[in-house]
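INFO batch 0412 | record 1 of 1 | parsing
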Amino acid sequence: MKPKAIFCWSGGKDSALALYKVLQAKEHDVVALLTTFNAKFKRVSMHGVREELLEKQADAIGLPLIKMYVNEGTNAEYEKNMEALLLQYKAQGVTTVFFGDIFLEDLRNYREHNLSKVRLTAAFPLWKKDTSELVNEFLQLGFKTITCCVNDANLTEAHVGQLITSAFINTLPANVDACGENGEFHTFCFDGPLFKQPINFEIGEKVYRPIEVHVNDKDLVCVSAEVARGFWFCELLPV
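INFO prediction complete | emitting tokens
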């Protein structure tokens, strides 16, 4: 019997590629996706993507979506809620939690520390892979994704709401990681070999939000080495 696992799912390209690799390896029984939402706005923290679109992704993948809500946006609240949820799934036989992180050591250490409290294993299918090679592999596999949030320390309004293509990656500033691993941009994946059908959506307005002092969700937030004044978000509307 394969060990049971859940996958921490942001809805973006790195999550999609990591989950694809896990499913292709066929070494684990992935029983569900896990996403953290802002309880008030019903959106993925930082990405700003609506809960309904994450539901559509999960349906197209064919896995249940576990929803974890945060209200206060503190690390303490996040850790408390996550621990309670993981204990529930551990009781059902889950032993491993997968993440799409690539090279941020502090974030990996944070995840491993939290999982050690409940004696679960953290796994990172993309860890230390070359990000330029990863994004090229992602595109060659036929995945499609769009930028839903960009950091204004590195990118501009023109970069949000854009399809990720080879041309897009080639025109990124030299200090921007090809996968946006430092938090330069976040994406919403809507098609590819992971999905039974594409996720239909429309592009809405672009909105600028000044950066807040507190960090909402360490599960999803990566702070760029550059200083950001705020973020541009592109509204994605379910169809």
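INFO post-check: Residues 131-238 form one domain.
INFO record closed
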